[in-house]
Amino acid sequence: MHIRIEDDFDLDKIINSGQCFRPCKISEDICRFVTKDSVLYMSSAADKNEYEVSCSEDEWEKIWKDYFDLDTDYECIRSSVPQSDEYMTQCAQAGKGIRILKQDAWEMLISFIISQRKSIPAIRTCIEKLCVRYGTQVKTERENLNLFPTPKQLAVATKAELMQCGLGYRTDYIMDAADRVCNNMIDLEKIKELDDESLYNELIKIKGVGKKVANCILLFAYHRTGRAPVDVWISRVIDEKYNGNDPFIAYGEYAGIMQQYAFYNSIR
What is each CA distance from 116 to 22, 123, 172, 204, in whole angstroms? Predict the structure, then answer.
């Protein structure tokens, strides 16, 4: 099926923006996205605004349109950066095409716990090992692959087994998260109804979830775009480009989108 996207949309930039770790290019032209038990293959068509997708129209409307946040006008948001903010103007141009994906909360919880003190390639490697070892295998028209493991699938793993996936000290955090979700100490679906601060406070009850990880989950799972996670890259931007003053606050509900532009500009 072919679809048209008139707004900012760049598959490569989305995949390499640091917000997701399983989406990837399986060939020069085809990108693969996985959310829960749905798999999408997507490639650019001849027209720069046209894309070929592997799903039905119904699945596109019910799952992937929202996943890519296609009801939000990113061109308008990007154009709202004032010229007086020269560095953010540069970042917004560099990051043109990035969208904040609406990803699964459980996957984001585990992914960003793993992300601490790891490079993006190392994070991807750990996550893929978890998926291969514990996730359900599915067969598509193109390949066999494993879904992200459910809380129950991870809860039965031993500490020694998880350590073999390269988790290191994060192993205890993963085990705590799986235990809390499986024993209903936290309901990742129910808490989405909370306001930002209440949701943040629920997340930091989980072992290994601090300020940065919680804000990543808020932004990339719960789509709280007013949250701008601060890691080493963003801290450097704040210190070196804005003399220690957080520039994202001024962007209000779009702070997280600006953070993604700045992060991408820093790592590219």
Answer: 17, 9, 13, 14
Residues of the chain where predicted confidence (pLDDT) is lower than 70: none
Span(s) in the chain for CATH 3.30.310.260: 2-94
Both structure tokens of 28: 């020069």
Amino acid found at 80: S
Give per-residue pLDDT as tens, 32-76.
999 999 999 999 987 789 999 999 999 999 999 999 999 999 999
Whole-structure pTM value: 0.96
Topology of the domain comprising 105-220:
Endonuclease III; domain 1 (1.10.340)
CA-CA-CA-CA dihedral for 147, 26, 40, 133, to nearest 10: 0
* Residues in CB range of 104: below 8 A, 6 or more apart: 35, 36, 148, 221
Q: What is the DSSP string of 131-192?
A: HHHHSPEEE-SS-EEEPPPPHHHHHT--HHHHHTTT-TTHHHHHHHHHHHHHTTS--TTGGG
Helix (H, G, I), strand (E, B) or coil at 37: coil
Task: Classify domain 2-94 by CATH number.
Answer: 3.30.310.260
Q: Where in the chain is the domain with CATH 1.10.340.30?
A: 105-220
The helix (H) or strand (E) run that includes residue 87 is helix 86-94
Q: Tokens for 83?
A: 């010229």
Contacts of 247 (CB under 8 A, 6+ apart): 85, 87, 88, 237, 238, 241, 258
Helix 232-241 and helix 255-267: axis angle, to 10°?
Answer: 90
Of 162, 97, 93, 120, nearest in space to 23 by CA? 120
pLDDT digits (tens, 9 = 90+) for 170-192: 999 999 999 999 999 999 999 99
Helices (H) and strands (E) in the chain, counts: 14, 7
pLDDT value, residue 46: 75
